[in-house]
Amino acid sequence: MVDKKNISTVIADDHPMILKGLNDELTANNYNIVGQAANGMQALELILTHNPIIALLDIDMPLLTGFEVIKMAKQKEVDTKFIILSYHKENEYISQAKALQINGYLLKEDSFSEIEECIECVLKNEVYFSRSFVPASLVSVSEDLKKIKHLTSSEKTILKLVAQQMSSSEIAETLFISIRTVEKHRSNIITKLEIENNTANTLTNWVYLHKNAIKEL
Question: How many CA atoms within 13 Å lie on the side-chain side of 154?
Fold first, then answer.
């Protein structure tokens, strides 16, 4: 195990008590806190400035979400390992975390010992999800993401526009193609994603549940 004093860490949460509690626990356990942020913009600035080994981020923060911070930091090619610490258990959040290839995802209800276990895992280049997640949901999300990757570039474009709540006629007008072509693409997408109950709103409903992951296409 790496000496904790050498594990530079940035933490970010817009709830002062949670931020203080996390800082106190990490400091008491000899982690090197190089910065604290109360919003996403501050978090991004700290990460780009310090290039910490670990960044522990909330998702719902002002100015930039935790996911946006991670996406922008990765575009700058930082070496930081990213761990989400959130209340969100929903599949759409798991989908976006997996799409962004986030190193760890913890829940705020988790014990500090699990936070340490997560840190140990991500330092070994392993991906860690909270034990509170139902394993089946993690597998289901992973399978859905694999299916999305099998879509053609045209189908991914259609999927993004569906995620923007555009109708087939609006998509056709935007892409300068026929409505019939759009409907054919939608049919192919439904087949490739193996979506059951093929009704008029089938694809729209599926996209709603996976909209965060689709943003990363």
Answer: 12
Task: Establish if 139 belongs to a structural domain.
Answer: no
91-to-72, 102, 135, 136, 138 alpha-carbon distances in Å: 22, 15, 12, 11, 8
CATH number of 120's domain: 3.40.50.2300
Same domain, 86 and 117: yes
State which residues form the domain around 35: 4-132
Please list the residues that pair with 11 across neighbouring strands.
36, 56
104-107 β-sheet, strand order: 32-37, 8-12, 54-57, 81-86, 104-107, 128-129
Q: Residue 154's closest CA among 205, 189, 193? A: 189
pLDDT one digit per residue (tens) for the chain, 217 residues: 567 888 999 999 999 999 999 999 999 999 999 999 999 999 999 999 999 999 999 999 999 999 999 999 999 989 999 999 999 888 778 878 887 889 999 999 999 999 999 999 999 999 999 888 866 666 666 677 777 778 898 988 998 888 888 888 999 999 999 999 998 998 888 888 877 766 667 787 777 767 666 766 6
The secondary structure element, H or E, covering residue 36 is strand 32-37
